[in-house]
Amino acid sequence: MSDGIAIGRIQVPKAADVLASELRERILAGQIGEGAILPTERSLAETSGLSRASVREALRILEVEGLITTRLGRNGGSAARRPTHEGLARSVNQFIRGQNILLRSLLEAREAIEPACARLAALHRTEPDIAELGALQERLEAAYADIPAFLDANLQWHLAVVRASHNELLLAFMLAISEALHAGTDLQNFNSDEIRATVMRAHRRVTEAIREGDAEAAERRMERHVRAYAEQVRRRPAMAEAL
Prior knowledge:
With 243 residues, this protein is mainly alpha-helical. The protein folds into two domains: 15-80, Winged helix-like DNA-binding domain superfamily/Winged helix DNA-binding domain (Arc Repressor Mutant, subunit A, Orthogonal Bundle); 85-240, Four Helix Bundle (Hemerythrin (Met), subunit A) (Up-down Bundle). 69% of the residues lie in helices and 3% in strands. It contains eleven helices and two strands. The protein has a two-stranded antiparallel sheet. Strand 1 and strand 2 form a beta hairpin. Helix 1 (15-28) packs across helix 3. The N and C termini lie far apart (62 Å). The mean pLDDT is 88.
């Protein structure tokens, strides 16, 4: 007689997933250090009791995740890698492209994040950070008449502000969306003389606040800058809805 208790179908994880999970946790926890060479496929198969095919699949999973690099040949092998902000940026960028995220959404994300980055930059900037911001400002102004060079200098200046925040997570995210923003606003007849002149003035004011360590002014000025730029894009609906 049934007691009315129903048990759903139990999903048993694949052997390769179990091994990949074990190795992943050891790499992330630092038990397997950066650059450490993992045991060979044969050795992993012998110690884990799994088939060579399962071991090979587990290593392939970790390689796709960017947690190991594999070299072929006589002196080859799999070396552990710790996650980097470039890897996170690559994943976010793939999400942006794969989900067809609109330029309007990227601008909203930028408005939410960059003022906070400027505040943190004013609090945590170093002398090299200040020197980089100054050099990029000079590069921006020197490229005033060359729109592609101007846009590249503009992109690099914004990333330098985020680097000066010394927050790796914010940097990874901004690396991902900045490239998409750059591509989305590199359009003919958008970056007028007036807009470029406004950008240069705004950058000077933000750089000055960061240099002086004035967090409130840096945040306020960056907020004003990115909002004004976003408004210019929003006045062109075809731009705001496309990427």
